[in-house]
């Protein structure tokens, strides 16, 4: 973006982004970047999923190399259950034969401790 608008030498932008590790989580809590740089984000694809009933739109980000998903509704992070938005994207990507082990929590397996 800096190159696109010829802002590579802009001092204000350089200083602002030089202190980004000090930015408050309030501004970046819902940003899924996993510490990736913009050049590394090419492996990610963003899908927007909406339902007819509510009209709400959720963003599902997929890392193509591992098929790991993150949805803006955060249901998996909250309860450990994949949301319908993520399942719809897996269906669209034709990932039907096996759900990644990343989504099978130990508490849902035979090895779960009681």
UniProtKB/TrEMBL annotation:
Keywords on record: Metal-binding, Nucleus, Zinc, Zinc-finger
Segments forming a coiled coil: none
Pfam (any one): SWIM
UniProt keyword Zinc-finger, yes or no: yes
Main location: nucleus
InterPro entries: FHY3/FAR1 (IPR031052), Znf_PMZ (IPR006564), Znf_SWIM (IPR007527)
GO CC terms in record: nucleus
Family: Belongs to the FHY3/FAR1 family.
Protein name in the entry: Protein FAR1-RELATED SEQUENCE
Native species: Solanum commersonii (Commerson's wild potato)
